[in-house]
## 1
Amino acid sequence: MPARLVVLVSGSGTNLQALLDAAADPGYGAEVVAVGADRPGIEGLARAERAGVPTFVLRVADCESRAAWDAELSRLVAEHEPDLVVLAGFMKLVGESFLARHGGRVVNTHPALSPSFPGMHGPADALAYGVKVTGATLFVVDAGVDTGQIVAQTTVPVEDDDDVDTLHERIKVAERTMLVESVGRMAREGFTVDGRRVRLGR
Ligand code: GAR
C-alpha cells in the first residue's frame, strides 16, 4: 500500500506538482490523497484538481479564531487518514491542535538552510545577509518557526547578480528534487527521530 500524503499549499504549488508527478509511478511508494489550502483560487489547488486529487480550503477569516481554524484544519486533514502531511509552500504556522493530532508526521520545506533565515522571507534574508551558499531544508514540524528536526538539506550558490526571484527560483529547482527524494524515502523506508537527528530507514 502506498503511503498516504496530504499536502497543504498556499501558492503556485510547484513542489506539490513534483510530488504528484513522482507519485504517478507506483514504485514511488506514496500517493497524494488530498490537497488543502488556506486560500481559494491558487494554482496549487488547480494542479490538484487537474490530477483528480480531492481538495479543501479553509481560510482563517472564515473561522472564529486562529485556534478554531487550526482545529478545523486538523480535522479536515485527519479525514484523509494521512501517513505523512507535507507542507509545501503553506504560508501558515500550524498550531497546538494540529500538532497534537498529526505531530511527528508533518514535514515542511523551507527555502533556506536551517537554522539560518527562518520565517517567511528565507531567500530575501539570505540575499540581504550576503551568504554565498543557501538552499532548502525539509524538516519535521514542531511548535517553532522552522525549528524542527532536519530531514534533508540541499544547497545552491548565490550569484552576484541574483535578485530575490532568481535566487528563489534556483532554490526551488533543488528543493523539488530534495522533497521528492526525501518524501519517497520516508514513505518507502520509514524514519526515526532521535533528539535533533532524523534517520531514514528502519
Ligand atoms: C517554496 O520555496 C517553499 O519552500 C516556500 O514557498 C515556496 C513554495 O513554492 N515556503 C515557505 O517559504 C514557507 N515558509 P511552490 O508553491 O511553487 O511549491
## 2
Amino acid sequence: MDISVVIPLYNEEESLPELTDWIRKVMLDHNFSYEIILVDDGSNDKSWQVIMDLKKEHPQISGIKFRRNYGKSAALNVGFAAVQGDVVITMDADLQDSPDEIPELYDRVKNQGADLVSGWKQKRYDPLTKTLPTKLFNSVTRSMSGINNLHDFNCGLKAYKKDVVKSIEVYGEMHRYIPVIAKWAGFSNIQEQVVQHRARKYGTTKFGAGRFIKGFLDLMSIFFVGKFGKRPMHFFGPVGVISFLVGFFCTVYLIAEKLISIANGTSYRNITDQPLFFLSLLTIMIGTQLFLTGFIAELVSRNSTDRNNYHIERVI
Ligand code: UDP
Ligand code: MG
C-alpha cells in the first residue's frame, strides 16, 4: 500500500464527508493505493455515526473510536500503530489542511529520501493571538532542538516514512514535537514543505491559550528525557556538585576569615550576621538534594522496561 492517511478528530462531524471525498479524489487522480484511518478521540457529536456511514461507500476508510477524549497525541499514537502504507500522512480533520498537498509530500518521502516532511503554513488564517505566540514557540523549539530548517513544528499536515511512525511514541501533548522526537530516535532527514492553509470552516478550535504553557513544559521534558533519560545522574550530578562546592568553599572562607581576625586581634562580625553564610547554607542543601535526586532518578531509570531500548536500523 502506498499511503496511509491518519486523521485524529474530536467533534468534527461537519467536516468529515467533505474531507474524505477530497482525499479520495486526490488518491484516484494519482492512482495511489491508500487507506484512511479516522481516529475518533471520544467525540460527543455524531462524528462516529458519520464515519460508519462513510465507510459503507468508501471501503478504504477505517475508524477507531476512543471511549473518551484522550487528546490528539493519543489519537495519533493509536493511528500510527495501525498504519500499513509505506508513507504515512497525518492531517487535521477540520479542513484547514489541504489534501492536494499529499502527492508532493508522498514524493519527497518516497523518492527524495526524507524521513519526515513537515508542513509550513507560511500564510496562516488564524487569529493574531494564536500566530504570535506560535512564532515564539517555534523559534525556541528550533534553537533547543537544533532542527533549524523547520518554521512550523506543530503543523498537523506531515508525512513520514513508515519506519518513523513505527519507532516513535507520541503521548501526553507531545504531538507538537514529533520532529524533535523523530530526531532523537535517529531520523535526521527532516524537511519542510510550504502548504496551503485555510480558515476553519466548521466547528471550533479544540485548544485554548493553555497550549503555550503546556507546550513549553513539554519541550523541557522532551529535552530532559531525550538527553538524560538513560543517564540522569549526568545531569543532576554536576549541577549538585557545583552547588555543593560553592557553598562549601564559602563556608571555609567565612571560618578562615574569622579565625584570622581573632588571631590578629582585629574586629570581626559574627558568622550568623553575614548574608554569605545563609547563601552557603542554601547552596550546600540544594547541592545535596540535587545529588540525591540524581541517585533516585538512576534507580528509577534502571528499573524502567525500556532502559535497553535502542532504535536499531539494520543488522547484517
Ligand atoms: N483533536 C483531537 N483530540 C483533541 C483535540 C483535537 O483529535 O483532544 C483533533 C481535532 O479534531 C483536529 C486536530 O486535532 O482534527 C487539530 O485540532 P484543532 O483544529 O482544534 O487545532 P488548531 O488547528 O486550532 O491548532
Ligand atoms: Mg485546526
## 3
Amino acid sequence: MTEERKTVFSGVQPTGTMHLGGYLGAFRNWVALQDEYDTVYCIVDLHAMTNPTDPEEFTTTRLETAKVLLALGIDPQRSLLYMQSQVPQHAELAWILGTLTPTGVLNRMTQYKDKVARGIPANVGLYTYPVLMAADILLYHAQLVPVGEDQKQHLEMTRDLAERFNNRYGDVFPIPDPLIPKTTARVMSLTEPTAKMSSSDENPKSRINILDSPDEIRTKVRSAVTDSEPTVRYDLEAKPGVSNLLDIMSGCTGRSVDEIATEYESRGYGTFKDAVAEAIATELAPFRSRYRDLDNTEVARVLLKGALDARQKAELYQDQARRAVGLGKL
Ligand code: TYM
C-alpha cells in the first residue's frame, strides 16, 4: 500500500519584483519540496490588489511572476501552478472563514498595522488579507506551508481558524504547519538592515532582484550599509548589515556563517562585499538564462492548464466544506 503524499501549499504576490529574500526564505524550498510532496503553488493576484497598481502593468507583472517561478525550477509536471483569481473557490472559502474570524484577531496582525503605518490605504481587502490567505491554504487541505518568517503570524491565524471551523462544523481541515528555514528566514534590506528586504521598499538598492545582472548585484552589494568597525563578524545587534551579508553569503554557498566570517575577518569590507556579490551572482545566474528562454504564450498556456486542474481539485474539497456548514445541495 502506498502512503498518501502530504500536500504543500504556498503563494507569492505578483508585485513586480521577486527578490533574494523571497528566494532564500521560501522559493528555494518550493522547488526542493516538489520531489517529495504534492505541491500547489499559487500566484496570489487577489492579494496583490490590496496594493493598487495600474491594470496594464498588473497584467504584465502577473505573467512575469509565473515566468520567474518557472525559471527557478517550479515544474508544472510535478506542481500545480496557477493564478488565484482563476480559481473562484479561494474567495468563496475566504467568505466562509471570515464569518469565523473575530475582528479583534485581525486588529492584531502586524503586517496590516505596518502597511497602514506606511501609508497603504486601510481598506477592507487589506484588513481581511489574512483570511484569504487562510482560505488559500485550507482549500487544498495543505499540511505544510513553506514561507519566510514574516508570514508566521498569518500561519498561526490559519491554524486557529482551521481549529475553530473543525470545532464548530466537524473535522474538515488538517492543521497546517509552517515550514520556515532555520537560516535566511528573514533576509534584511541592504540599505536599512534592521528592516526586512521587501518588494515594497521605495529604494531599489535595498534589494537584490532574482533577475538582476552580476553588475547590478555588485553595485548594490557595494553600497550596502555596514558600520565603521571594519571587521567581518556576526553580531546582529552591533553589526546588522554585515551579519545580513554573512547570512546571505551562507545561504547562497551552503558554507557556514562562522567559516565565512573567519575567512574574511580582517580582509576589509571591500573584499568581503565583492565575495558576497560573486556568491549571489553565481547562485542566480541559471535563473536569468532560463527566464530569457521562456515564451509568454507557452507560459500563459501552462497557467491556464494549472487553473483548470486547480479548480477541479479545489471543487472536490470545497464541496466538503460547503456541506459541513449547511451550504450543500438542497
Ligand atoms: P510575498 O509575496 O510577500 O513573499 C513571498 C514569499 O517570500 C517570503 N519572503 C521572505 N523571506 C525571507 N526574507 C525576506 N526578506 C522575505 N520577503 C519575502 C515570504 O515569507 C513568502 O513566503 N502573504 C504572502 C502570500 C500568500 C501566501 C498564501 C503564502 C498568500 N497566500 C498562502 C503562503 C500560503 C506574501 O505576501 O508573500
## 4
Amino acid sequence: MKVFYTKVALNTYLDTHKKNKQIGFIPTMGALHEGHVSLLKKCNEENDISVVSIFVNPTQFDNPADLLKYPKTFQDDTKILESAQCDVLFAPDVKEIYAENITATSFDFDGLEQEMEGRFRTGHFDGVGTVVKRLFEIVAPNKAYFGEKDFQQLQIVRKMAEKNHLPVAVVGCSTFREDDGLAMSSRNKRLTDDERNAASIIYKILKKTAEKIQTHSIDDIKKWVSNEFKKHSFFELEYFVIAEEETLENATILSPKKQYRAFIAVYANTIRLIDNISLTY
Ligand code: PAF
C-alpha cells in the first residue's frame, strides 16, 4: 500500500498509474472497523485502484470536545488497510485540506440538511460537504463508497456531487452489523459492557418497525418506540423518524409509490448512536 500525505504526491502517483483505470474511493476519519473493510471489499471488486483517505475533518464537529475526543488509531488503521488490500492511503493534515482557513462552505442540499441530524448538529453537513467535495476534487474517483448507516450523509453527498457536476458515482453500501445487529461504528468501543449489550435493542426496534409498518399507523409506532427506550434507564431517544428516502422529509402516511426508511438517534448515557432501516410494505 502506498501512503501519501500531500495532494501533490498523491496526484503524481495517480497521474502515472490511473491510465484507463477505474479509481474507487472511500473517505474515512480513521478508527477503522469491519464496516470500513466491507466498503473496501466492494471498492476492490469494482475498481482497479482503491484509494482510502483518513482525515479527521474539523469543520464537521459542532462540538470542539468531540473533535478532541475523536479516536486516532493511525497505526492500527494502516494495518487494517494493508490486510484488506487497499492500494493507496491518503492521509493529509488539516493544513493540506484547509490551508489557513478552517471553515466550511455553506451548501444548499435542497433541504436534506434540515432534517434529522441537521436539527441536532448545527453546521455538520456543511462540514461534510466541504471536505468530501475537496477530497473528490483531489482524488478524482470514478466511484465513491459510503455506508448506509449514515444514510442522510449518503444522500447529502449524492446531492453535492450532482449539484457540482462532479463525475463520480456515489455508491451506498449496506450497513455492516455486529452479530447481535448493532451497526458497526467507532463509537461502539466507547460503550460500557452494559451499554453495549443493551444497544442491540436499536436494530431490534428497527426490525420490529419494518414489521409493524404493515399494520400500524406511524403515530402508533412512534409511541411504541418511545416506550421501548424508556424501559432502559440509560437510553435517551433523540429522534425516531420515518422519512421518504429521496427528500428525507418526515412521513405521516406512506405512499405506495415512494420508498421510506425508519431512522433512530439515541443516547446510551453519553454516547450517541444512530441507525436506520429500509421499509417495504
Ligand atoms: O462518515 C465519515 O467518516 C465522514 O463524515 C466523512 C464522510 C469521511 C467526511 O469527513
